[in-house]
Amino acid sequence: MIVTKYGNLTADTEKVAKVNKATRQNGGGSLSGTTPVDTVVLRTLVEAGTTGVAITNVGEMLSRRGKATRGALREWSKRVGLTQGEDNSMDSFEECRVGTVRGLRIKPSLLEVAKELLKSSSA
Hints:
Elements: H1 2-6, H2 10-24, H3 36-48, E1 53-54, H4 55-61, H5 68-80, E2 93-98, E3 101-106, H6 108-122
Antiparallel strand pairs: 1-3, 2-3
Helix pairs in contact: 3-6, 4-5
């Protein structure tokens, strides 16, 4: 009854799965296929270096606030190719203080990777 009403959705779900997989996997480690916001966030974090960026600023760039900011950054880091893998246990950021407010910065071990991503996106 459901099949007659809605049709066979297997072809559509396979197509969606392929698109989702292509979105998750960033081929070649460059910023191709990302939005201008992704590039701006990457540039901001790289330029801040070990100083970090205020969480509110990063959250505004990613259109998230409060506790949702960290999750948005995890998704963002996978999207741009900073981290890879299916699990969410890898966190590429650490907390810091930017003046008197809470901030985030890219972990020092991934800062060079971020710089390379930024170079490849501008080339």
